[in-house]
Design goal:
The complex is a heterodimer of chains A (1015) and B (90).
Chain A (H helix, E strand, L loop, with lengths): L23 E5 L3 H12 L3 E5 L14 E2 L4 E2 H14 L3 E4 L2 E9 L2 E8 L14 H5 L3 E3 L8 E3 L1 E2 L11 E2 L9 H5 L12 E7 L1 E4 L3 E3 L16 E3 H8 L20 E8 L15 H15 L4 E5 L10 H10 L4 E3 L3 E6 L6 E6 L5 E6 L1 E6 L1 E3 L3 H8 L23 E3 L9 H18 L26 E6 L11 H9 L4 E7 L5 H13 L4 E6 L2 H14 L7 E5 L1 H5 L6 H19 L9 E3 L3 E5 L3 H12 L3 E5 L21 H14 L3 E4 L2 E9 L2 E8 L2 E7 L1 E4 L3 E3 L13 E3 H9 L8 E5 L16 H15 L4 E6 L9 H9 L3 E4 L7 E5 L2 E7 L6 E6 L1 E4 L3 E3 L3 H8 L26 E3 L9 H19 L3 E3 L5 E3 L9 H5 L5 E3 L6 E3 L9 H5 L5 E3 L4 H9 L4
Parallel strand pairs in A: 1-2, 1-13, 2-5, 13-24, 15-22, 16-17, 16-22, 17-18, 25-26, 25-27, 27-28, 30-31, 30-36, 31-32, 36-47, 38-45, 39-40, 39-45, 40-41
Antiparallel strand pairs in A: 3-4, 6-7, 7-12, 8-9, 10-11, 14-23, 19-20, 20-21, 29-48, 33-34, 34-35, 37-46, 42-43, 43-44, 49-52, 50-51
Helix pairs in contact in A: 1-2, 1-9, 1-21, 5-6, 6-7, 9-15, 9-21, 10-14, 11-12, 14-24, 15-16, 15-21, 17-18, 18-19
Chain B lengths: L17 H10 L4 E6 L3 H10 L8 E6 L7 H9 L4 E5 L1
Parallel strand pairs in B: 1-2, 1-3
Classes of the chains: A alpha/beta (1015), B alpha/beta (90).
């Protein structure tokens, strides 16, 4: 390792690290950002303290109904992450807490955390809800954005973690009824605040955002007219867990609306100083809300009033088009000047002026204000305590690369660093974790705990003795299902040696009782009937393994979500159903045998494919996190598209960034650079890949544990507007070259045409970067040659986030922006005398003719030519447009579906250099969560093969989506690669000879259950 | 693959006479077995619970790790045993 290690953090300052670094990290804010950073760090061998001001973790995402552009249910995709955070051995969650002091230096900080009293003991509360039923005090329900009320003792929402109540002390009258009703003595009205000191090596700030207070825009009548709501309130109205269970009705009279207007940029893009930024998410969430609303109320008409439609993310343009074509959403490009309520109908009259100047009035049943996002309350204080700088809007200022702040050792992620959507937040949070991991790589694993090994009892010779434990879940199950009767019934079932009930089976004392019963009653199978196994089975499996039973001698019955909660008015039938479900699981449990998880060794080297900004950043990140890298670049030179950039919009110098990266990559002993090389063959599996590389005809095989694809993309070379025929017609990148070479002096008129080769039939996506590039070049021209006229012909100006201020600056400096419709594209006449551009101006109503000295075409990004080949080599999916397709567009932006394979940069989708670098760090971090493990634990419930019965037909190989099945060439029978098997069982069904089985779901076991199913 | 019926077993297919149809409309309570994927439909049924959606208690859900893992036997067995329907969700 060279001196690079020392300046891992920023590269600029070389500083001697103190000898004693701490392998623990403080993460402030527990939204999707803080959760992602915490999970990545904990998986990579660091202890994490996750601090949250509110009573529960997960931030804003639980409030959202659906998420764009996939319309996935927000809570459904989020809750597995919440469960992972809540159950992680090395993540300590501290709610109602805040940072009040931070001292020390990078690698060794002392953080003071103040925890406010919750008045409910989280360890004792089992969330039964009895307290809530007796509380006489109602308060505004913050989770539902004030649309309804809850009690002064409340749980923020059904799936909240910690799964415990909290008292709103300001509104509590301390009548003591909840205390009396609580069966577990969990309530303490005298709880005091506590201050704790934590030793950590680094800090990540991810406190998230607040929505803009819509009342400040008085002209829209929010808070005055009932039927004017914020977009976040509208999410709650659409949500099945919202105040109306997802039945879309308007607040004033509970009637279904027929016509809804969305007003964009409420609290965003205000040219004054404070909010001169774009919130980046509102155009898409308004589109989503309009779509979902129409699905709730067929025939509903929706109009979105906006300046530009900023659909710049991956898949967003296509989503926007679907909104128009399939849902008939009207996008009206003008701002609304006022909203007035009509007295009789409570309808709302919107007044707006059309681009041609004509004034319009239109009536709607309901108005949704697309409120922007702003730094959350308390971030000024947080920034002061953490010692980080803020920008002019109050967002955290980044220094150099994204995620790094003005305070070394303190990093930032998510919307605190500026407005952004969920996938960008997730990627940035992994990236922030990567910077921490770079800083603390030599103390990885020094503060974490591992599970102790407990010897297991051999039950193979014992006849089945099943123990059944039925949970009341307070009143959640017990008030509907007759639990004593169910437990009594369970005792009558074959081989049941013990059956009893618990008020709360998941409480610590109940788990101890289960362990005792296993020993005293010599139980060798356990069935718990309570809530969903998806959250609670691991808890009980862990308990039985502590009692010496194999954790797979266990069956879980869901009598809450699947019975008491869904049949609450049919107590008898719900009870019968519970009995049936228990009978089925008992029958299966009798046939269970132990399952032992297998492990795969991990090779600790990584392969990075592509030597541009993303590939080099990923390599540096991996190497500084302590893992060796093979960096393979197809061309003979590192740099990729970064070589074409000469300056950036925010004053950074691409040339310096490139040189710095190249030096780090070539100097670092842990990075093996292979230029002029191509991957020609890929074999193996996560943890142990074997890849053949061709370097100018010389072949070599390398072994590595994981792969990062950073293969970049190309620039579209247009075939229109006389490009290639007339030297005055250039691409935006070529213009940048001309400007930097000083070839623009004396130029009078520059015309830029946006969306050339993007948002078209051929390439239906938005290239994201061209608007920023155009604004950047326009400003540069104005800077060097203020007399030059610059005209930007655009469809929508899509500079986003805090880059909005540069768009404002360009307009102030006299750059003229003229909008065109795709039906009336600019006309370019190129002759011997010059280039004439004709465009119809919507505001003036005239066709303008401009003599262009230079015509720059914003030609956009096209997927790399090799993507098809790469996709086949690495078995990675491509999307319709030909970019690499990640595992999940929202929450897994840099992962592929298969472990061990990650992506970043332009290969993923068009993006700016800074975004590519952040994403590269994210991909490196995700790779390190795999590389830093001692060994890879395989899925337990994998497929198995009985070699005697297998006829080697190969149907299992064909049916496997994970490439986990193969035919052994020597024996001619099928095998299973444990590390690849995901335990879906599809091969078992395909097997015609019955040789394949799935552990834990063997055919005999399933049939035992099915035979007991009839009711 | 085959499912052998024992001598005394027969598939419980009834003639849909007017009488049967009329009766079935009045007090027919179907017995349904649902085979649902752990990752989607089972989670969906959980969400129905957390959302307190109410539905009729005529179904018993069986969790499988993938709807692709549903062996035809798992569908035929309940039907032989007299189930009125088997639902596969994935």
């Amino acid at each position: 390792m060279s001196s690079n290690k020392k300046n891992a953090n920023k590269g600029a300052v070389v500083r001697e690290m103190p000898a004693k670094k701490k392998g623990a990290v403080l993460v402030i804010g527990s939204g999707i950002s803080g959760m992602q950073s915490s999970l990545d760090l904990a998986e990579a061998g660091f202890k994490v303290y996750l601090i949250e001001r509110k009573p529960s973790i997960a931030g804003t995402m639980p409030m959202l109904d659906k998420t764009f552009p996939t319309n996935d249910c927000s809570m459904c995709i989020l809750s597995p992450k919440v469960v992972d955070v809540g159950g992680h051995m090395n993540i300590e969650v501290m709610t109602m807490s805040e940072l009040i002091g931070l001292e020390g230096e990078p690698g060794n900080f002392q953080a003071s955390i103040k925890t406010h009293p919750r008045y409910v003991d989280v360890d004792l509360c089992v969330s039964c809800g009895r307290c809530e039923t007796v509380c006489p005090q109602t308060v505004t329900n913050k989770f539902n954005q004030g649309l309804d009320e809850c009690k002064a003792i409340y749980k923020p929402y059904a799936q909240a973690f910690p799964n415990a109540y909290v008292i709103d002390k300001e509104n509590c009258i301390e009548c003591g009824q909840c205390e009396e009703k609580c069966g577990r003595n969990a309530i303490d009205h005298n709880m005091q605040e506590e201050v704790k000191s934590l030793a950590v090596g680094a800090v990540i700030l991810s406190p998230g955002f607040d929505i803009f207070d819509a009342g400040l825009r008085g002209e829209f009548g929010f808070g005055v007219y009932d039927n004017v709501v914020t977009s976040l309130q509208f999410e709650r109205l659409l949500s099945a867990s919202g105040p109306n269970q997802g039945h879309l009705i308007r607040p004033s009279d509970e009637k279904e609306p027929k016509k809804i207007a969305f007003i964009q940029c409420v609290g965003s893009r205000e040219p004054g100083k404070e909010r001169n930024y774009c919130s980046g998410v509102c155009c898409m969430y308004a589109t989503k809300e309009a779509m979902v609303a129409q699905e709730h109320a067929p025939g509903l008409q929706t109009s979105i009033f906006c300046m530009d439609v900023r659909a710049y993310g991956k898949g967003f343009e296509q989503y926007y088009k679907r909104g128009q074509d399939e849902y008939g959403i009207q996008y009206v490009k003008c701002m609304v000047s006022s909203v007035k309520e009509l007295q009789q109908s409570n309808n709302l009259l919107l007044r707006y002026s059309m681009p041609d100047g004509s004034l319009q009035e239109e009536e709607f049943d309901m108005v949704v204000l697309s409120v922007g996002i702003q730094p959350s309350e308390g971030t000024v204080e947080l920034a002061r305590v953490a010692g980080v700088g803020l920008d002019e809007f109050g967002f955290c200022k980044t220094e150099g690369e994204m995620c790094t702040t003005s305070h070394e050792g303190v990093f930032v992620a998510g919307t605190f660093a500026g407005p952004k959507d969920i996938p960008e937040t997730v990627a940035e949070s992994s990236a922030a974790a990567a910077y921490v991991s770079r800083l603390l790589s030599d103390v990885r694993g020094t503060c974490t705990e591992t599970k102790p090994d407990i010897p297991e009892r051999d039950v193979s010779e014992e006849p089945p003795r099943v123990g059944v434990f039925v949970c009341n879940c307070g009143i959640n199950i017990g008030s509907v299902i007759n639990v004593p009767e169910v437990a009594k019934y369970a005792k009558t079932l074959k081989d049941v040696a013990h059956a009893s009930e618990f008020l709360f089976a998941c409480a610590q004392d109940s788990l101890e009782k289960i362990k005792k019963r296993i020993k005293s009653q010599k139980l060798n199978r356990v069935v718990v009937a309570s809530c969903t196994p998806r959250t609670h089975a691991p808890l009980f499996q862990n308990a039985i393994s502590e009692a010496g039973l194999n954790p797979y001698l266990y069956e879980h019955v869901n009598i809450r979500e699947h019975s008491s909660w869904v049949h609450k008015d049919e107590c008898d039938k719900a009870t019968e159903k519970a009995k049936d479900l228990i009978r089925m699981s008992v029958a299966k449990s009798r046939t269970l045998s132990p399952i032992y998880t297998t492990f795969t060794d991990i090779n600790r080297k990584a392969l990075v494919v592509g030597g541009g900004a993303a590939g080099m950043s990923a390599s540096i990140s991996l190497a500084e996190q302590g893992f060796d890298v093979y960096l393979v670049e197809k061309t003979t030179e590192l740099g990729g598209n970064l070589k074409e950039l000469h300056y950036s919009i925010d004053g950074q110098e691409p040339g310096t960034i490139l040189e710095d990266m190249k030096n780090k990559v070539t100097d670092h002993a842990g990075i093996n650079v292979l230029t002029g090389s191509e991957v020609v063959e890929v074999g193996g599996y996560p943890g142990s890949y074997r890849t053949k590389i061709n370097t100018a005809g010389k072949m070599q095989e390398i072994v590595h544990g994981c792969t990062v694809l950073a293969t970049g993309a190309g620039e579209v070379k247009p075939s229109e507007y006389h490009y290639g025929e007339n030297p005055k017609v250039v691409t935006q990148t070529e213009l940048e070259g001309k400007i930097s070479r000083g070839e623009m002096t004396g130029i009078k008129n520059v015309v830029m045409i946006q969306c050339v080769g993007s948002r078209s039939e051929e390439r239906p996506y938005c290239s994201r970067i061209c608007c920023t590039q155009a604004v950047k070049n326009a400003l540069k021209i104005k800077e060097t040659n203020p007399a030059a006229n610059v005209y930007v012909l655009y469809r929508d100006i899509r500079v986003y986030g805090t880059k909005e201020k540069y768009y404002t600056e360009a307009r102030q400096k006299g750059v003229i922006f003229i909008r065109y419709e795709p039906e009336a594209k600019p006309e370019v006449i190129a002759g011997e005398n010059g280039v004439e551009v004709k465009i119809k101006d919507h505001i003036l109503g005239y066709t303008l003719s401009i003599d262009a000295d230079v015509l720059a075409l914003s030609t956009g990004v096209m997927p790399g030519a090799d993507n098809e080949k790469l996709s086949q080599l690495f078995k990675a999916s491509l999307n319709d447009e030909g970019f690499l397709l990640e595992a999940h567009m929202k929450l897994r932006p840099v992962d592929f579906a298969a472990d061990g394979l990650y992506l970043c940069g332009l290969a993923h989708s068009p993006k700016l250099v800074s975004e590519s670098i952040a994403q590269a760090n994210a991909a490196a971090m995700r790779a390190v969560t795999l590389l830093s493990k001692d060994r890879l634990q395989n899925v337990a419930m994998t497929a198995t093969v009985d070699e005697e019965t297998c006829i080697g037909c190969g149907l299992c190989v064909k049916s496997c989506s994970y490439d986990a099945r193969y035919i052994d060439e020597d024996t001619g029978v099928a095998g299973v690669t444990g590390v690849l098997c995901q335990g879906c069982g599809a091969c078992v069904v395909a097997c015609p000879s019955g040789a394949s089985q799935q552990k834990g779901f063997e055919k005999g076991q399933m049939l035992a259950l099915m035979k007991a199913a009839m009711f | 693959m085959s499912v052998a019926l024992k001598d005394n077993e027969r598939l419980p297919v009834e003639e849909f006479t007017d009488e049967v149809r009329q009766q079935s409309q009045q007090d027919f309570e179907p017995r349904i077995i649902g085979l649902v994927c752990n990752w989607c439909s089972y989670a969906g049924a959980d969400l129905a619970g957390t959302s307190r959606a109410q539905y009729s208690p005529n179904i018993r859900l069986v969790r499988v790790m993938c709807s692709g893992a549903v062996d035809p036997l798992y569908i035929l067995r309940p039907i032989i045993d007299g189930a009125d329907g088997v639902l596969v969700g994935g």
